[in-house]
Amino acid sequence: MQKRVLAGVVLLAVLLALIFAFYPGNSQVIDLATGAGISKMLRYENAQVYLFGETHRCTEYQQFRNALFQYLVEKKGVRVLLMEHGYASGFLENETVQNRLSFADEYGYDQFIVSKEDYELFRWMSEFNQNRPERDKISIVGIDITDSIGMVYAFCRYLLRDCDFSAADTKTQMLLISTQKCQFQQRFENSLLPQLIELYQTNPEQIELALGDQAIHLERVLQGWQQGQECYKLNDYQ
């Protein structure tokens, strides 16, 4: 009986050794510069959603992500990239790849390009979108609740920069104009942002009167900021 068990263990070890010995030779090699080889690694021909996963600060992963995303756009018709960024960051990123903002704009886009590979991906998306009809452009959506105060500040100033607030009441107009013209992030954080949140909570109709279709973007950022602060407080309490 012991001999049979021992023989079985040895056989299993040999099989595992053979698998590990031959697997690297059969794995798919992908050229990160050209994307060659990516088509052979995709298991589902007609997938509607592709999950990339994430590895922070890993150059090779980000290069692979860029090559894979470009392949999916060009060969599979993918047109939306969901990012683990807050809504405000995603909004400004999208405005940039839609070429409504430049890569060196005053609204702080460079604050959230954290790597050379990120910049290369966004630049490629911007170039891809040029001179294409709206339905064929790539869009970015931030799906995390977290945004830095700098991003919320930049977002609010950008969203409000060309708005006509005359349809709202006087108090709302004054608050939005003050936010639009605010030059100090600390004043925005300590005074104007709490007032915007209070307005959103107590009288959201005035935001809609002032901003029209753009109101939904401000409401999502304010809601995300509140949720993020509640999460931070809960983590601190625990």
User: What are the secondary-structure elements, in order, as H or E?
Assistant: HHEHHEHHHHH
Structural class: mainly alpha
Total beta strands: 2
Rg, Å, rounded = 25 Å
Order of strands in the sheet with most strands: 1-2
Proportion of residues in β-strands: 5-15%
The 3D shape can be described as elongated
Runs in which pLDDT lies below 50 for 5 or more consecutive residues are: none
State the helix count.
Answer: 9
Largest sheet geometry: 2 strands, parallel
Please tell me the overall pLDDT: 83
Helical proportion, percent range: 55-70%
How far apart, in Å, are the first and last alpha carbons?
55 Å
Structure notes:
The model has no long low-confidence stretch (mean pLDDT 83). The chain is mostly helical. It has a two-stranded parallel ribbon with strand order 1-2. The protein starts with a helix and ends with a helix.
Features:
238 residues, mainly alpha, 9 helices, 59% helix
Could you give the topology of this structure?
Layout lengths: L1 H25 L32 H18 L3 E7 H11 L18 H14 L9 E6 L4 H12 L9 H12 L3 H18 L1 H8 L3 H23 L1
Parallel strand pairs: 1-2
Short description:
This protein has helices at about 1-25, 60-75, 85-95, 115-130, 150-160, 170-180, 185-200, 205-210, 215-235; strands at about 80-85, 140-145.
